[in-house]
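Something for you to look into today, if you have time. Could you write out one complete protein record for me, on any chain you like? The space below this message is yours for that.
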Amino acid sequence: MYSYDAIARYTELGCSMTARPSTIANYFQDCAILQSEEVGIGIKYLKEKQRAWFLLSWQIVVDRYPVLMEKLKVRTWAYDFKGFLGYRNIDILDEAGNRIVYGASIWSYMDTAVMKPVRIEPEVSAAYPMEPAIDMEYAPRKIALTGEGVLLDERRVMAYQIDSNGHMNNEAYIAMAEEYADNLKDIKEIRAEYKKQLMKNDVVKVRQVSSDGRLQIIFTDENDDISCVVMFIYI
């Protein structure tokens, strides 16, 4: 298990003075990357091997959001590897040791020379100590759409949204989805399914489907091929 200490900062909070869903995604993404750096399978190592981890899905469950100045511990661990897939849990503990946010993610191990999944090498999987999975209700990796969605917006991917893999960062989709959602503090589960990369200056269309306390934000390219689906589940 890897962990780091954090503090809920003002710039990470929404108007309710609680952390935003995208803040949680950033905590979790940072924790996963920091663990990889610590065990020697970090960004530089992977680039030299023409390898990368691409996120396929997030499932994040929020018991409560961190508040300003709250001291936190963010933790992560691998709980399974299958072929080219890696499975990871992440959680956040408050200062009293209570688990306030937890989640699961699925990652694809990629050969970046041909941009195809490749079996995880033994030395890579061996670097991550395996620990038991969180006892939670695991959602499917794929999000079942409840409709085609109403077109809300059309924009372009900006430079600040691009990460070290050269595509739009995983968190950026969640941050963008927040722009079309109300009452962020009432979101109790965040799911994201990543299907196709978007690059700098690519057109991204934003569609929305809302029903039964679930808000689906669908991001497509200019040809209407889905890049990512973010779903917010409310109280």
Notes: The first strand starts at residue 2 and ends at 7.
